[in-house]
Amino acid sequence: MRMGVHREVRETAEAIDTMEIRGAAAIADAAARALRAQARASDADSPEAFRGELRAAARTLFETRPTAVSLPNALRYVLHGIEGATVAALRESVEATVAEFCVRLDHAQADLGEVGANRLRDGDVVMTHCHSTDALACIEVAVDQGKELAAIVKETRPRNQGHITAEELSELGVPVTLIVDSAARHYLNDVDHVLVGADSIAADGSVINKIGTSGLAVNARDRGTPVMVAAQTLKLHPATLTGHTVDIETRDVSEVVDRETRTAIGDPDVANPAFDVTPPRYVDAIVTERGQYPPESVVTLMRELFGEGTTRPWEGA
Ligand code: RUB
């Protein structure tokens, strides 16, 4: 354990690691708030020591889930956004920067929802995968506009995040049909849009999202069903501008099969990749708070936002 890392930071890191806090936007929000907790609790006696504590806290948070770039983007926003010549001034700056970050996050999702809702028409049927607050924001705005939608919701093995989507869509008054993942192709002819979120978007327009997204997108292309990805600019992965690839998280195999069943079926090897990469040619639109983009042109937005690439969040902070 890193010295000087506050309990709340360790608890947040643990909650992200165990997926009590999950989904790229929620992870970013929690990470920024954890840095604020570190700043509030700090008894550092110099600005250098204070910044050092924040960097250590950022590293602890960063190591939890490798695929969602919203996490390092949030840490970078706070670490590089703060200024002050004294500990008190820096602490105040953390308060202001985190508050600003959380407001921007909320606004981005609401603005993105408006853009995405414009793609949805009255009477449309939407197929979802996993649970994405960015994707749900599009449906929520469309419903608020008076459009009647229906949803076919993939359960999204192994952790069944589709159940959360089903519950939240029901609360919005959207009729839901829950299906097993392998039934998706069977229903694609009845669907007007596939709508998913993203954990990261690479500079070439590839979409990194919950495992199963790429197969769904390929099937949707085969059926002629448009695929829409709802992703705030916080999901754009700056390191991919300079040729880095996105790490794909693998999770514990017990999420796939319990020990007893595994033994009973001959103890096979089990693998549990959490995310996959959907090439840009299978995606029709990436919907952000800055408007919608064909995936191939998302790189122009990335250059505008990040320049030519960035360091890891704590470097230079
Ligand atoms: C969640 C997932 C979501 C993205 C986007 O995976 O793949 O589609 O994180 O979510 P996990 P949001 O359950 O493994 O975190 O739009 O809420 O940021």
Automatic annotation (TrEMBL):
Belongs to the eIF-2B alpha/beta/delta subunits family. R15P isomerase subfamily. The keyword Oxidoreductase does not apply. The lineage of its organism: Archaea, Methanobacteriati, Methanobacteriota, Stenosarchaea group, Halobacteria. This is Ribose 1,5-bisphosphate isomerase. The active site is at 130 (proton acceptor), 199 (proton donor). Catalyzes the isomerization of ribose 1,5-bisphosphate (R15P) to ribulose 1,5-bisphosphate (RuBP). One of its GO terms (biological process) is pentose catabolic process. InterPro entries: IF-2B-related, IF_2B-like_C, Initiation_fac_2B_a/b/d, M1Pi_N, NagB/RpiA_transferase-like, R15Pi. It comes from the Archaea. Keywords: Carbohydrate metabolism, Isomerase. GO terms for molecular function: ribose 1,5-bisphosphate isomerase activity; S-methyl-5-thioribose-1-phosphate isomerase activity. The keyword rRNA-binding does not apply. NCBIfam families: eIF-2B_rel, ribulose_e2b2. It catalyses: alpha-D-ribose 1,5-bisphosphate = D-ribulose 1,5-bisphosphate. It is an enzyme of class 5 (isomerase). Reaction proceeds via a cis-phosphoenolate intermediate. Its EC number is 5.3.1.29. It comes from Salinigranum rubrum. HAMAP family: R15P_isomerase (MF_02230). Substrate binds at residues 22-25, 65, 209-210, 235.
